[in-house]
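Two proteins were folded this term; both appear here.
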Amino acid sequence: MANIVTCLHSVIMTIPGIGSTNGGMIPGEIGDIHRFSTPGKLLAFAGLDPSVYQSGNFQARRTRMSKRGSRVLRYVLMNAAHSITKINFCLIYA
């Protein structure tokens, strides 16, 4: 996997905390980025968009993730975000 990702010269590998596994799985799950016309559609594909909860005149102020998209992409993005926060935490408090 590491050899394939280095051959692609992906910009995603420049982000600290994203290794060869996450760096290969994110573009692999997304595919052609141009099939998403807006960032919101990519967010919805990953299942990270907020769910809608409303009934009549009531509309909830706080909602959870919809979790309707790609389970693998959502897992990889959450894993990468967790790794990045650990690295930033160590840099701040080192």
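Next, the second protein.
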Amino acid sequence: MKNTFETTKVIQLKALCSVSSTIAIVSHTNPDGDAIGSGIALTRFLRQAGHEVRFFVPNHFPKFLAVIPGTEEVGIYGELCDAAHDYIADADLIICSDFNQIERLDRMTEAIEANVIAPRVLIDHHLNPPEYELSFSDTDYSSTAHMVYDLIEAWGGTEAITPEIAVALYVGMVTDTGNLSYGNLTPALYRAVASLIEKGVQPLEISRAINTQSESRLRLVGYLLSEKMKVESDRHTAYITLTRAEKTRFNHQIGDTEGIVNMPLAIEGIDFSAMFIETLDCIKISFRSQGDFDVNLFARTHFNGGGHKNAAGGRFFGPMNEAVATFTRIIESVHP
């Protein structure tokens, strides 16, 4: 792994923070464990260093992430609106964490674009990063939380990682790697995890918290796998659809669909999985693969999206039946 947090760049970040009266950290829509964990960890670390910092996300995150100390301080832009807009628009420094496309911020994009003075800093592990004044971008990392761990270590040493920060980083690391089961599982990642456990993280306690599910969520999973999953064995592909009416039927809550797109990959012979979720504005699509099929390229080329080689997302502007028809037509030619 290249030295993403080389001394020169860390010194640059310290200098930017030192001349900033207010710092805004922002992360993506429908924030997951990595977005919330890395954002809270960075916020707390910078506050320890004496900086005025606030962390904002566009909308709510899954309830199970309350296991991370400090979630009550995360600013939900959709609820704060005017106050959040003013803070971001007037901030002296904006740190963009765990996303590579400004469009992933929804309405929060307006506040960031209104700020034409503040330098932007990127901390992210996705492909195709934007050009910012200072970027920590490395696709070899399995999570942004691991990047923040290395940043804190380079800035202040591991002694700067408090027990609360350790929990935030750990949750980010394990949720973005499927409990350490996805790609990029490097020796450095396991050393970081071990260090966080030495700081007091309780893996079993956190595992119970992040894997606890509601009855309605379990029933939704059962319904989707038994009634809505389509398997195209000849294309080594499976896909699942979820409509707004079905979300209402199963009392869908934020986070209820997390991880479902990965489940079809457990089927023998299936190496490409997609999940289509109907929203008010579009059909949101999650893509997962195993092996050499590049879903980042697939999403960017066909569905206004992107992400990682084996995990990406996209959008389709039209009804569900057209989204599925478009998808199945495309896979006939690109995923034989």
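The longest strand covers residues 272-278. The radius of gyration is 20 Å. These notes refer to the second protein only.
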